[in-house]
Amino acid sequence: MNTDRPAPAVAAEAWLEMVRQLLSGDAGTLPLDAAERAALLDLARVAAHTSERIAAPLSTYLAGLALASIPAAERAERIAALVRRLEEQSA
After folding, report:
1. Confidence (pTM)
2. For each successive 10 residues of the chain (91 residues), what is the average pLDDT?
3. End-to-end CA distance of the chain, in Å?
4. CB 76 within 8 A of CB 33
């Protein structure tokens, strides 16, 4: 059985840039720094591994809605705190 997956058509950074452009017309208005990106990926990981997989994108969406109005650095920390609480509750 071949488990090799084909290479994605678009690299992640290019994809995110395209999404930002389509959402805002100006990618600079939708920043996603390294800390926030890591926190969101951790949230998606926890959701996918402790719940149905569909919870991963929906959880990150909910976090984005809830935390959109605060500074990026604070968003990253709040998402990281959420991840810690979810990991504790699912342990």
Report:
1. 0.82
2. 74 89 78 90 96 96 94 92 96 81
3. 34
4. yes
CA–CA distance, 91 with 84 (Å, rounded to integer): 11
Residue tagged 């509750």 (tokens): 89
3-state SS of the chain? CCCCCCCCCCCHHHHHHHHHHHHHCCHHHCCCCHHHHHHHHHHHHHHHHHCCCCHHHHHHHHHHHHHCCCCHHHHHHHHHHHHHHHHHHHC
Q: Report the distance separating Cα 6 and Cα 68, nearest Å.
A: 34
Residue 36, judged by CB atoms within 10 A of its CB (0-12, 13-18, 19+), counts as buried
